From TrEMBL:
Signal among keywords: yes
Name recorded for this polypeptide: Substrate-binding domain-containing protein
Primary localisation category: other
Annotated stretches, region: Disordered: 30-49
Superkingdom as given in the UniProt entry: Bacteria
């Protein structure tokens, strides 16, 4: 009997849920006679905050050696505490792929109900994601994506291309009345695809503003030290420019140090991610940092919500479907002085 249950769970995870759709629709219809709904959406069972079926969620992420990564873990743990029916089994974060694979395998052996995984390396952890799914444990893949959709039931993450796009349009609108405007870019690690996507989004946005030219670009390493060093080089090479797009608020702390040490102003700076320090600087309004583009670590809290919904076999509020989506890409909103108070509670340290 246990084997039959496991087989059924695997079938549902890999797309056989359609077999039971008729039964679900019949169970959730209104008072209309069976078969006469006309294809109209019925009220699906959705998760809410009321205690329901108990769910054990395994959580595995990288080492929290960066403000954003630490915020991911904090958001996941705090969200889990919100639900009386959720038990969170969190591993100690690791950037070693072999160690993280071992941690996920331990969670699989514990037979958790759902897994939330932010892989240190999506490609390297794809096989263990597949192993979980084939064991009947649905996986919520957080941000860094596995190589195949078969390794997860749902992916949720940020929009790196959208970050660059939002930054480019914000700067473009601020400078659209200025002739021969110049912008510079302080990127992240160029070996990472996410850095390349952020740059592409930025460049594509600037194509809409023929008066603006990107005159320089430096790649840093997402650290305060690298941000300060590379920004100093940019400032030395470019005596005049009108705007700076910085990919990461952590390295932005160093970039702002370099700007102050050089005594430079006369340009606007747009950051990336949504650090509390950036929000506070924007709110003060007396420096070059005027906005930051979100890459919200609150995605980890949402991942817990999705995992709970999966564990309870429910959909999510605001959607007519009985199942949660297979992919959710978060929007890269711009935070400036006009809306910074709203986002301040989400800022990470």
């Amino acid at each position: 009997m246990a084997q039959d249950v496991d087989t059924t769970r695997r079938g549902l995870l890999f797309g056989a849920a359609a077999i039971g759709t008729g039964a679900l629709l019949t169970a959730c219809t209104s008072n209309e006679p069976s078969g006469k709904s006309g294809g109209k959406a019925q009220q699906a069972a959705v998760t809410d905050e009321k205690p329901g079926k108990r769910v054990t969620i395994g959580f595995a992420g990288p080492q929290a050696d960066h403000g954003w990564l630490n915020a991911i873990t904090v958001n996941a743990k705090e969200r889990a505490k919100k639900y009386a029916d959720v038990t969170l089994e969190a591993t100690e974060g690791s950037n070693d792929t072999a160690a993280q694979i071992g941690q996920v395998e331990t969670l699989i052996n514990k037979k958790v109900d759902v897994l939330v995984i932010l892989p240190a390396d999506g490609k390297a952890l794809t096989q263990v994601g597949l192993k979980a799914m084939r064991s009947g444990i649905p996986v919520v893949n957080l941000d860094r994506v596995f190589n195949t959709p078969q390794a997860y039931r749902c992916w949720i993450g940020g929009d790196n291309y959208g970050m660059g796009l939002s930054a480019g349009h914000y700067i473009g609108e601020k400078l659209k009345g200025k002739k021969n405007a110049k912008v510079v870019e302080l990127a992240g690690l160029d070996t990472l695809e996410l850095t390349q996507q952020r740059t592409k989004g930025f460049d594509d946005a600037l194509k809409n503003y023929p008066n603006i030219k990107k005159v320089a670009r430096q790649a840093a390493e997402f650290t305060v030290e690298s941000g300060q060093s590379k920004m100093s080089q940019l400032l030395q090479a470019q005596r005049n420019f009108d705007a700076l797009w910085n990919h990461d608020d952590d390295q932005g702390v160093g970039a702002l140090r370099a700007v102050k040490q050089a005594g430079r102003d006369g340009f606007l700076m747009v950051g990336g991610a949504g650090a509390l320090s950036a929000f506070q600087e924007i709110k003060k309004g007396d420096g070059v940092l005027k906005a930051t583009v979100l890459y919200p670590p609150t995605m980890a809290a949402s991942a817990i919500d999705l995992a709970r919904a999966l564990g309870q076999g429910k959909g999510i509020g605001g959607m007519a479907e009985f199942e949660i989506p297979s992919s959710i890409t978060l929007y890269s909103a711009v935070v400036d002085k006009d809306n910074v108070d709203r986002y301040m509670p989400t800022g990470f340290q």
